[in-house]
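[Discussion] Sanity-checking designs against the backbone

I'm trying to build intuition for which residues belong where. Below is a structure token string of 78 positions. I'd appreciate it if someone posts a full sequence so I can compare it with mine line by line.
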């Protein structure tokens, strides 16, 4: 797995920003001039292998950016 290769350095920390298809679709629809078309989203979800709890810190993205960043900061300090 690619994650195992990337975690050879024990200081590597993965942050998995978790959001529903609907939420991400909505955000993608609001983007302009982005390289990834919203229609490609389903294939990305189909291929997604969500990390296990011991592989990554999972943060829900259905909240304000300030809160997301605060959660990441709190979880990576330890």
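Best answer:
Here's mine. Compare freely.
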């Amino acid at each position: 797995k690619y994650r195992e290769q990337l975690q050879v350095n024990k200081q590597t920390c993965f942050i998995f920003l978790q959001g529903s298809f609907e939420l991400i679709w909505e955000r993608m629809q609001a983007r302009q001039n982005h390289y990834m078309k919203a229609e490609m989203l389903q294939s990305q979800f189909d291929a997604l292998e969500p990390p296990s709890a011991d592989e990554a810190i999972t943060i829900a993205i259905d909240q304000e950016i300030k809160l997301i960043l605060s959660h990441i900061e709190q979880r990576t300090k330890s």
